Automatic annotation (TrEMBL), chain B:
Organism: Agromyces albus
Segments for region (Disordered): 1-22
Name the record gives this protein: Sulfite oxidase-like oxidoreductase
Gene3D superfamilies registered for this protein in UniProt: Oxidoreductase, molybdopterin-binding domain (3.90.420.10)
Domain Oxidoreductase molybdopterin-binding as annotated: residue spans: 35-179
Membrane-traversing stretches: none
């Protein structure tokens, strides 16, 4: 299966954050592209989901889930902008 | 809250004593991957081992294919609870590739085309335990399955068997690779269920 | 192939910030199947009564988790064909021949069955009716600018089961008597593969603000003006609102379909920021 949109992992992420973080805007460390996480590309590998920059394909974030824990890594994002209103 | 869904069994999940704990049997070969599939022409392909002195041992495809080839029949175990038994591969043993490599270091970072990394102990790669495989089931390895060549370390969970491998870099200490930084176990022995941190 | 947005400038922040305003909080719920029906020979419509469902915006999805007796679970995402504040949720599922979950949902699920769902999810791929009163009174200033953006026309582009969230948008548009011009391009294999066929025809027949264009990829109805075939760039150009009208474009379907359409939209001059995509997977 090919990639889907960042939007598609709103479910697992809703278990971490009190709001829908896929609507938050993030800046790619690799190329500086700024966009909602929902616009990133999601690759689902057996090990976990990888969010990649829609512009340069660099890894923005990773999501790993076990039965009782989950890990969210933001290794490729320089900052996340969250709207207050 | 979880409850059993009436009538749902999922894809058949057989048990077998050759399976490590928590694993079930599959017959197909899931091909999901963490990024776009790199298309690497064997004309451009290169594999290298880099040591602490900066020494580089490298092979192009022709040189690589001139090395002695092993036939490997083995079971593979994915951390997402599936195992596939009796898979057959052809590849070059890491023992062959390390024959002339001088190193005092005990750990290795495997690097792949496409940027993926995974860490391994040198002990897990030597003594007939690991290969750079280029054939699966009698066919050249598909790009989707890691072709032209992937690492094959069947006694560890399959995420350690890096697809599209391009080189190994010796490390003095064990450092986490891509998935190991993001939740996965540094070692990954399926018989000990070393899945996560 | 990479995402459509590659082709454009380095920033793509959201257009109307208010379109992303808070949606009901996601949570796990128990859904009871209230009705099922064949949608097509290959697909089913499931109507769920979801205990505690907080309502959802048009375009959102949910995650559905199935659990086998041995504890094995499978989770898949499904778009919601309905919207609003009620606890009824409508799904439409296409059966993939060797799929694990979709054949179960299409062939096995019966009225009274209970399913676990997590949602509503995804506040990005949503459409909300325009508050025209607010739009008129807002005048200038930031609020006015945002409302003006929201009054832009909407182009919906669906491939196969990708119609589901777009059908929710079209229905919400009609129910709100929203005056935003809507145009929908829907690509399906044959006339027998149309989801929500009656409802869509009714919408197209009764609303001046909704226009439906169909593309058949394998077989057309008798007397259809165009031969069967995939959506081409030319067909797209002919059937979608032109970039000069600055429509907000929602594209949904298999990953391959969405990729093709989105890259053509960019070539046709649409701004990547105005295109919202929902890829269902597959090739
Ligand atoms: C946000 C979102 C919303 C979705 N909404 C809907 C919806 O409203 N209706 C609907 O029917 N589906 C929808 N899908 C797709 C759905 O989640 C499943 O992927 C689909 O039902 C297949 O699941 P499965 O278990 O039957 O197939 P699997 O067992 O997962 O896969 C079987 C085979 O089909 C391939 N495949 C997987 N997905 C697709 C696909 N979409 N198209 C073609 N081939 C595929 C796989 O690569 C595999 O070879 C949505 C997906 C996402 C991400
Ligand atoms: Zn980038």
């Amino acid at each position: 299966m090919q990639h889907v949109d960042g939007n598609a992992i709103a479910g697992p992420l809703a278990e971490f954050f009190a709001f829908d973080i896929t609507t938050a805007v993030a800046r790619c460390n690799g190329c500086g592209f700024v966009a909602e996480l929902a616009r990133a590309m999601v690759y689902t590998s057996p090990a976990g989901s990888v969010l990649r920059c829609a512009s340069c394909e660099q890894v923005l974030a990773t999501l790993v889930e076990s039965d009782d824990r989950a890990w969210f890594g933001f290794s490729g994002v320089s900052a996340i902008e969250v709207r207050r209103r | 809250m979880s409850f059993i869904t009436r009538g749902f069994s999922g894809r058949s999940h057989e048990r077998d004593e050759r399976l490590p704990p928590g694993q079930t049997l599959v017959h197909d070969f899931p091909v999901l991957s963490a990024g776009p599939t790199p298309e690497i022409d064997t004309a451009e392909w290169e594999f290298s081992i880099t040591t602490e002195t900066g020494g580089v041992h490298s092979w192009n495809w022709q040189q690589f294919m001139a090395l002695p080839i092993d036939e490997v029949d083995t079971d593979i175990h994915c951390v997402t609870h599936w195992s596939k038994l009796g898979t057959s591969w052809r590849g070059i043993s890491l023992d062959t590739l390390f024959e002339n490599v001088e190193t005092q270091y005990d750990y290795v970072m495997a690097h792949s085309y496409g940027g993926y990394t995974t860490n391994l102990a040198l002990d897990d790669l030597l003594d007939g335990k690991a290969w750079i495989a280029f054939e699966f089931d009698g066919e050249p390895l598909d790009p989707e399955h890691g072709g032209p060549a992937r690492l094959l370390v069947p006694h560890l969970y399959f995420w350690k068997s890096a697809k599209w491998v391009r080189g190994l870099v010796m490390m003095g200490e064990d450092e986490p690779g891509f998935w190991e930084q993001n939740g996965y176990h540094l070692h990954g022995d399926p018989w000990k269920e070393e899945r996560y941190w | 192939m990479s995402d459509a947005s590659t082709a454009t400038a380095t920033t793509a922040t959201s257009e109307p910030a208010r379109a992303l305003a808070a949606v009901p909080r996601a949570g796990w719920h128990v859904a009871t199947v209230a009705a099922t029906r064949r949608e097509t020979a290959n697909a089913a419509r499931l109507e769920l009564e979801v205990d505690g469902w907080p309502g959802n915006a048009a375009g959102q999805h949910l995650d559905l988790r199935l659990t086998a007796p041995d504890g094995y679970t499978a989770t898949r995402s499904y778009s919601i064909a309905s919207s609003g504040s009620g606890t009824r949720v409508v799904l439409a599922v296409d059966r993939l021949p060797d799929g694990e979950v979709s054949p179960f949902l299409v062939n096995e699920v019966r009225v009274g069955d209970r399913l676990e769902v997590h949602g509503p999810l995804g506040a990005f791929f949503v459409w909300r009716p325009v508050d025209h009163g607010a739009l008129r009174s807002a005048g200038d200033g930031a609020g006015g600018a945002a409302s003006a953006l929201r009054a832009r026309p909407v182009q919906l582009i669906a491939g196969g089961s990708g119609i589901v969230p777009l059908f929710a948008m079209a229905t919400a548009h009609a129910e709100a008597r929203d005056l935003t011009p809507f145009r929908m391009l829907y690509s399906v294999r044959t006339p027998d593969d149309l989801f929500f066929a009656e409802e869509l025809m009714a919408l197209a027949a009764t609303s001046d603000d909704f226009r439906l264009d169909l593309v058949y990829t394998r077989r057309t109805p008798d007397g259809w003006p165009n031969p069967a075939g995939r959506v081409t760039r030319e067909a797209l150009e002919g059937a979608v609102l032109p970039a000069t009208e600055r429509p907000i474009v929602y594209v949904c379907g298999s990953t391959g379909f969405v990729e093709r359409v989105a890259s053509w939209l960019i070539e046709l001059g649409h701004d990547a920021r105005d295109i919202r995509t929902e890829r269902f997977g597959g090739i």
